[in-house]
Each structure stands twice: as structure tokens, then as C-alpha cells.
Design a protein that fits this description.
mainly alpha, 208 residues, 2 strands, 6% strand, 8 helices, flat
Length: 208
Amino acid sequence: MNDFAKDILSSYLSANDINILEKTFVNTVYIIDMPGKYPSMIFSVCLLIASLLLIFLISKTKLPPPIVIWVIYLALINLVSSVVFILMPAMFPYIIENFSELYIKTEVVIWLFIPLLMGIAFSSLPSNIFTKTAVVVLTIIYSMVLGIIRYVAFLYILAKFSYIFMAFLFFAFGPLMDFIYIVGLYSLYVSNYASKIGKDLRIWKWLS
């Protein structure tokens, strides 16, 4: 994973600045470390103003409340980050190494828990065990592919643009959001299975 990420990033950034570090977790994990970029005062102020404007404008729209809340949530993350870099940029405690380590460790936990969580969720369904296993395996593969692509994109943004987006990337689009597609894939499977068995009460008796 890290070798692949390093190869991709080396196409856009200096390969000499990209290092693979060894960390201890459940077992040994490897992360990427590289120089990041601190935002300028002007950039921080502009992002602060843009975040405030977005919060004001989106609250005046007639968009569905969930979309409005989500956009405000994203804008608030950037707003807080902007304030931090405006008032106390030298006190920002994180670098790419810290972000990378947290990201990889969180992903590893998710990959380990997907079989457990989905296995428990599927255990009450009287469907074919091979089909359920295939769904779990596909979910893990999807999570790994998405995790690698997202990892590369995040590191590129932090190195090329600014640390100011670190919190935004992790909390808005990071590993914590993986539960959305995990629940989505599970719901899709259950929905399709329910459509197939229809009103067969002999199968639905497991609900009683």
C-alpha cells in the first residue's frame, strides 16, 4: 500500500522527500512521511471568510436539511482550522507523519472489524453463507481500494496545498466515513434478499 502510494506521489512530488516509516500497532504497520505545507496568513483569512459566507448562504437556501447540515459541518471544520492558523500557527501540533499514522491505524481497525461487524449483522439472515461471505469479502476489497486512493489524495493535498485542510480531510472524508458504505452495502444486500423471498412466511419466521 505504501509502496504504491509512494510511487504515485513521486510522480508529482520529489521522491527524495517521501519516506516510508515503520510503526507498531496490532502488528507492524508502515506509513508515509513527507514535508507538508503551512498556509499563509492571507490564505487562512480567505478560507475563514469563505467558510463564514458558505455557512450564511447555505442556511438561506431551500435545500434539504441534511444537505444544509452537512455543508455547515464541513464549513465549520475549515473555519476552526482557519482560526487556529491565524491566531497560533506555530502551535499546530501535527505533521504529515502524525496524520498518516492515524489514518493507517484507523483503516487497519476498520479492515479488521468489517468481517466481525458484518458477520454479526448477517448471522440472523437465513440466506446462503457463501453469498454473505462474498459480500463481506467485496466490502473489504472496496474498503482497501478506496482507502489507498484516498490516502494518496490526502497526502498530496497536505503536501501540495496546506496543513489547514488536515482536519477537514480526516473528519469529512476520512476513514470514519467508511461506515456509510458498509451500512449501505449491507442494506443493499438485505433489500435484494427481501425482494427475492417476497412474502414467504416460512423464511420470514426468523424475525419472530
